[in-house]
Amino acid sequence: MATADVISSDVWQVPTSNAFGQPFRLYDVESTRRSIVDEFYRTNHINQTYSFALEMREKHLKLNKRRMGIWDCCELLNEHVDESDPDLDEPQIEHLLQTAEAIRKDYPNEDWLHLTGLIHDLGKILLHPDFGEEPQWAVVGDTFPLGCAFDDAIVHSQYFKENPDYNNPLFNTKNGIYNEGCGLDKLVMSWGHDEYMYQVMKLNNSTLPPQAFFVIRYHSFYALHRAGAYSRFMNDFDREMMPWLHTFNKYDLYSKSKVLVNVEEVKPYYLSLIDKYFPIELRW
Ligand SMILES: O[C@H]1[C@H](O)[C@@H](O)[C@H](O)[C@@H](O)[C@H]1O
Ligand SMILES: [Fe+2]
Ligand SMILES: [Fe+2]
Predict the structure, then answer these.
(1) Which of 29, 60, 89, 111 is deepest in the core (most CB within 10 A)?
(2) Tens digits of per-residue pLDDT, 68-125?
């Protein structure tokens, strides 16, 4: 049998361009999604203040909006497209499965990391009417700490000039209200799907390992995991977790593509992982 024309590879291939044929995470050049993404970051940077983040914690961490299982949430998220993303305009369930399947190819034995891929963006459910239909700027996009100066490494940092915290002397010094080495856990991050999902996992007693919690909580903190900004706030635990965040990011970012995963085909495998690490029904 002739097999020479079948190119198969055992490792997942990192693509060189996104679904629109451009490099990933280009925010400053003309691109298909530029105006949507630009406007997204303008409103995000103006409105994400320290007090707003605290208000949103108060509003959403009671987890009194809905009861459902992890897979139900994946399906519910299907109708939403992320306006902050220059690299993808597919429904979210595809992004979740693309991430998880790419990880699975390279780390066949780390089932917890497959499931982390599947669930990492489920916090975007805050866009749904049952959760108050939060605006995109309060749910998606990169995250950053509040209560200290905004770093230039944050995407579109020019828009922070109109953020009320920018001129608040309590918050606008280098370290603001924090001490170096205090640990990332002490930082109040801009509100969004990362922190929400981290808390959902924690408050519903997921048995996933600490690495999974860390990855989900900080996967949008590009200023840190890509540029090293704010690393002065890390403690030993954070430094131990960090390599997993770097590994995860490769699959989260570069698996975005127009080649879609067949949902029904992989569903039984992911249902078995959900069953292993989560209760049947969670509070959201
Ligand atoms: O546009 C994307 C998207 O919203 C992702 O879910 C988030 O994790 C990224 O940080 C962001 O750049
Ligand atoms: Fe995300
Ligand atoms: Fe993602």
Answers:
(1) 60
(2) 999 999 999 988 889 999 998 888 889 999 999 999 999 999 999 999 999 999 999 9
**Residue 203 domain boundaries:** 34-283
CB of 85 closer than 6 angstroms to any ligand 1 atom: yes
Q: Which protein residue's CA is at the shortest distance from atom 3 of ligand 1?
A: 141
Protein residue with least CA distance to atom 8, ligand 1: 220
Residue 5 falls within a domain, yes or no?
no
Does any domain span residue 27?
Answer: no
121 Cα to the center of ligand 3, angstroms:
5
Number of neighbouring beta carbons within 10 Å of residue 64: 9
User: Residue 130's closest CA among 60, 203, 43, 40?
Assistant: 60
Has residue 77 been placed in a domain? Answer: yes
Q: How far is Cα 80 from Cα 88, in angstroms, rounded to an integer?
A: 12
Ligand nearest to C-alpha 84: 1
Query: Is 220 labelled a binding residue?
Result: yes
pLDDT per position as a tens digit, 116-153: 999 999 999 999 999 999 999 999 999 999 999 999 99
Distance of CA 167 from the midpoint of ligand 2 (Å): 29
In a domain, 16, yes or no: no
